[in-house]
């Protein structure tokens, strides 16, 4: 079971990821509508501060091939794509894709599950990065294959254990749920710590571990 903290925007947030030994971080790119959108140059600076063991995910919405190539050159390990994967991706790009499904897109699931460029799935609420929880029963029946299954959408320190027990994902993904409230923006180190602690505690629960789908070592 892996933990992903998404939407990092500055160097101190990279430090929170290091301090809590998270497995993945995400950074939102080429999506100015998001308050977490940063430039490739900012992302490169954040990457330099990250523990090299942490996997770096570029989070994008229907990117162009040109944007994907720029992301590849910046040194990301994965690309999380909401919306459409650009046509010609397999021929000219090599970053493994985490295909995000904003739950109304589930009709496209079988198409993407057959795509060799797709290394994993991120199941998220309708509005990405909105902090909204969706009905987890919608993904409980998703057939488990060799691709990685991240649960996202409104997770927070108070509901992540229940999410793990209920859905048995391979990984949990959070952004809004570890941020400050209305008065301040950015990640709250105390919420990051509590989220990671709650997730690890739930994972450590033997009854849960026995049911969680086992991943290959590389994950
Ligand atoms: O965070 C954003 O603004 C964002 C923008 C574009 C695509 C995805 C985005 N966020 C991703 O949404 C999930 C869940 O976030 P939350 O915990 O519900 O806030 C996560 O993967 C974010 O990276």
Short account of what is shown:
This protein has helices spanning about 10-20, 40-50, 65-75, 90, 110-115, 135-140, 160-165, 190-205, 205-210, and strands at about 1-5, 25-30, 35-40, 55-60, 80, 95-100, 120-125, 150, 170-175. The chain is an alpha/beta fold and about 220 residues long.
Question: Could you characterize the architecture of this molecule?
Answer:
The protein is an alpha/beta fold and 219 residues long. It has one domain (2-211): Aldolase class I (TIM Barrel, Alpha-Beta Barrel), CATH 3.20.20. The chain contains nine helices and nine strands. The protein has an eight-stranded parallel beta barrel with strand order 1-2-4-5-6-7-8-9. Helix 6 links the parallel strand 7 and strand 8 (148-151). Helix 1 (11-19) packs parallel to helix 2 (40-49) and helix 7 (160-167) packs parallel to helix 8. The radius of gyration is 16 Å and the shape is globular. The chain starts with a strand and ends in an 8-residue tail after the last helix. The relative contact order is 0.15. It binds the ligand O=C(O)c1ccccc1N[C@@H]1O[C@H](COP(=O)(O)O)[C@@H](O)[C@H]1O. One of its GO terms (molecular function) is isomerase activity. It holds the Pfam family PRAI. Its EC number is 5.3.1.24. InterPro entries: Aldolase_TIM, PRAI_dom, RibuloseP-bd_barrel, TrpF_fam. Residues 4-197 form the N-(5'phosphoribosyl) anthranilate isomerase (PRAI) domain.
